[in-house]
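User: Show me a protein chain along with its predicted structure.
Assistant: Here is one chain, sequence first, then structure tokens.
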Amino acid sequence: MTSRIIVLHIVVGLFPLLVAAQAYNPDKVSRKALQLYEKAFQKASENQTKEAVTLLQEATSADENYADAWIALGRLQLELKNYPYSVICFKRAQFIDLNYFKPHWLSYASGLAGTGDFIKALEITDKYIDQVKPTGPQLELALTRKRSYTFAVQQEKEQQSEKNTVGFAPKNLGATVNSKMSEYLPSQTIDGTQLFFTRRVDTYNEDFYGSSRQKTSPWENAQPLKGSLNTPQSEGAMMISQDGNWLVFTGCYRPDSYGGCDLYISYKNKEGWSAAKNLGNRINSDQWESQPCLSPDKRELYFASRKPGGLGGSDLYVSRLQDNGQWSDPENLGPGINSAADEQCPFIHADNQTLYFTSSYWPGYGDDDLFMVRKVAEGKWSVPKNLGYPINTIDREGTLFITADGKTAYYASERKDSYGGLDLYSFELNPSIRPYETRWVTGKVTDKKTGTGISATLELTDLQTRQVISRVKTDSLGNYLLTLPTGRDYAFTVNQKGFLFNSDQYFLKNGVVDSAVVKNIELQPIERNASVVLKNIFFETNRYELTPASLVELDKLVVLLSENPTISIEISGHTDNIGKAEANLLLSESRAKAVVDYLASKKIDAKRLTYKGFGLTNPLADNATEMGRALNRRTEMKIVGL
């Protein structure tokens, strides 16, 4: 028997040769244990990892002081991601002979980090660098892991200081959704009643499945999606639009593809789902495009690509749906998100403000971690924030889907209670990494005169920043869905050429509305005596100076008058019955004049503009209630000439 024992190597089947220490003598290992070890080595070299584990367990039973077998067993447990068991194995080998084990401290630290003990992992890594004094690639690896563990320790301190944290307790979605096959890449409609996901139906084929439920009742038995979407080819990396009508996904090596993997889209119809349509050569290239995600207004498509011109590896891009129905050339999200490494798995939340993605570049726990960024200005994003442990681990993380309320996340994982392979789970997010809680409004836009549904554009604009948060087009019947992130006050406007715009408001900065609001909207054709209440014209109490928040609506009015240069309008001011009638009449007239003055300042011909104050004489509602008085305090516009 030689004085050296070959230890199993996880990747290539060979461990480095180890020199025996004084306390541990490989020559004294029992023959039976050595034979089992050699068989395990052969199994590992044939990628039969589980069989190798069994043989190594038998070897350590045959000789409990067989340090090399414990080390090999521990490293195979690292490969299987059974980190607690790997730590046990390494501790046993270390107990047998500390000096002999020192070259394996980096593996021991990985096992500790896998269990979440980053403080101890950092301590062991420092000892490895100081005492073993590695060089070359081993030193680079040690320093890389030290940076990861240092980051993890700091993150742990920050998480401990946060208030209102919740425990990480994933819940399996159950046997009606999960199966003995692998399920992954979940997404939902905004109301949470429909779940979509990918299931690997055999070794080479993936199909899309769906399940439904009523509110918070259990999910029904999952079924393949109806229609022409699923094929004998693989369909993967899927995301459903928030209204449930569009489905984007990745298809690879199809006859109509431009390269290896392309992005496709399918539309919901009476039969289920339409046959997939390639999104075209503006988005797709001869390289890899994958992992698409639609914004809630379906105006932006986020995806990952390795196309030329990126910052390196895979980058995140966004393409915008143009008025002609075509997608724009993709725009790289830039160095604030992308890097020389890989950024993948983009998910834009229903708030249309918070983007989640994976990266192997930004500071993290060791492999691809999940990060979040928020829109801070037009085209700008905040600094990426790591989602922290245990969402992120030392292993590669995948995509998340987060529900509209911002509290619940769905993901795929293989855990002890999995039915087979990857299963779908849900868990509650910590408040610090949640997107904005989001409500939504649905309804139909119709012609007030005919009652028929019409095509129109709906915009949600932040009254403070005047930034357009969402822009949605109705379908051919006039139906729409618009998301309402909480924490802001919004102007809500509906526009269509040939009609007066309709305006409303949602004040969500200090409160919320019900999850779903149904609002059917009638647009008035542009004709004499057509009128509309300008609901987003604001004044301070008993003042007539326009507030900055009024500019959103006023600028809409400027556009209307510019696009229809022949119409003349009257602006009328109205008050409630609080105060003296004479004072209210003067106040209402001054407010109407302020609107006219603003329009004139924007080069609208003053001859087209008149104003009048009505005071409290034309109420819309009973002044006995605050709600009624609020409706009566208003500014109106009426067409008086064409």
